[in-house]
Amino acid sequence: MKIYYTSRGEEKELYSLLSSRAKNVSDDITVKVREVIDRVRRHGDEALLDYCERFDGVRPESLCLDQAEIDTAASKLSPELYATMERAAANIRAYHEKQLSDGYVMKRGGKTLGRIVRPLKRVGVYVPGGTAAYPSTVLMNCIPASVAGVEEIILVTPPKADGLNPAIAAAAKIAGVTKVFAVGGAQAVAALAYGTETVPAVDKIVGPGNMFVAEAKRQVFGTVAIDMIAGPSEVCCVADSTARADFIAADLLSQLEHDRAASAVLITPDESLISNVQKQLELQLSALPRREIAEVSLADYSAAILVKDIDEAFKVANTVAPEHLEIVTADPFSDLEKVENAGSIFLGEYCPEPMGDYFAGTNHVLPTNGTARFSSPLSVDDFIKKMSYLSYTKEEFLKDAEDVIEFAEVEGLGAHANSVRVRLKK
To answer: For strand 263-268 and strand 303-306, is the pairing parallel, antiparallel, or unpaired?
Structure first.
């Protein structure tokens, strides 16, 4: 893990390194995804079944899994894990229920202005189906939609020869999923965006996926809404001399095992902490089951930054705008006010990032690669729409009419002005 010194201005090198992880999608992938989307639009279910057979080695008898299949798969999960997932779901639901809003109304004389809030009618949730299953993804994406009041929550996941993964099936039941479809990849995104004979078109698509899924979401955006185009995972830890090196090293590695482009950054004014963390990284790395992945991301995209004090540490952290920010200082709650840009913030030595990934209740779908400067974690807000409304009495209209006419005429919109002026004629 390379060390950068702010006293030499070296942190700028790190900023460039981190931003380089957001590589542009190749023209080849863009073209392939466009072809998949076009074929699904033209041929519907037939295209989906062909792609299932071609990419997943399975041609399902039906794209839509019936409730009996979901229940059977879920029943294979251990009761202990099912109970754990129910407790996590309760935490996630409680946190997101605080985000609900009823809109508002304001009255000024004869004017009534307001906002009403309505849930989206139907959303699609993409759940990857690679070598690992991620039931936490189901909970984090579906529960906020359920809390928002979404009528139909459609889950898509690649088909498997041995059927739906038990953990995914159980999470779908717990989270309130309406229907599950055995289809993945760019073709699943196309189906959700445009609809087929079996898969209904949705209002918004959320959930992680590989580069083909991400590119498909990018291409259908505008036809439907999407959550975000997520980049490689990252963690940034601001720590002082009170921090334990073994805890810090473990937290950095927890993100580095995600993929080879993941990033972990330690920012501290304590040079001895950097040294001790480096020793712990070497020690702990050797025992990791995903050691090969973590070794690459540690060498390529991870660093320690030595700063003059904690205030400077937060200036650097705010520039990085990390997906996950850990604050491990003597008084983390006081330091919280120094944070301007971060996806999710973890305070104190006993709040490692995995607590938010799985169980605490905050959402783990977060902005990456510096986009926390302008975007937010997935929330109930992602599954609602806001509409404004207004009403004028005649008396109030007469008070504001000339002002509106003046605005319309200065912009050269005579018909706008006339729609007001015609109401002034006696």
So the answer is: parallel
Residue 234: pLDDT band with limits 50, 70, 90: very high
pLDDT, tens digit, 9 for 90 and up, residues 323-343: 999 999 999 999 999 999 999
Beta bridge partners of 181: 64, 156
Higher-pLDDT residue of 21 and 399 is 399
Give me the torsion for CA of 10, 14, 20, 22, rounded to 10°. -150
What whole-number distance in Å separates Cα of residue 283 and Cα of residue 68?
48
Q: Is 326 left (phi over 0), alpha (psi -120 to 50) or beta?
A: beta
Residues belonging to the active site: 323-324
Q: Give the tokens for residue 347.
A: 């305070």
Instruction: With a cut of 90, say whether residue 95 has pLDDT above it.
Output: yes
d(CA 351, CA 323): 16
The rounded distance, in Å, linking the Cα atoms of 294 and 255 is 8
Pairwise CA distance, residues 220 & 194, whole Å:
9
- 385/120 Cα distance (integer angstroms): 7
Q: Are 70 and 76 in contact (CB under 8 A)?
A: no
Q: What is the pTM of this model?
A: 0.94
- Of 226, 255, 288, which marks where a domain is finished? 226
∠ CA 141-145-151, nearest 5°, is: 135
Within a domain: residue 59? yes
| Residue 315 parent element (H or E) | helix 310-320
Look up the domain containing 7 and give its range.
2-22+232-361
How many whole angstroms separate alpha carbon 264 and alpha carbon 422? 64
End-to-end alpha-carbon separation of the chain, Å?
80
Q: Are residues 130 and 251 in the same domain?
A: no
The pLDDT of residue 140: 98
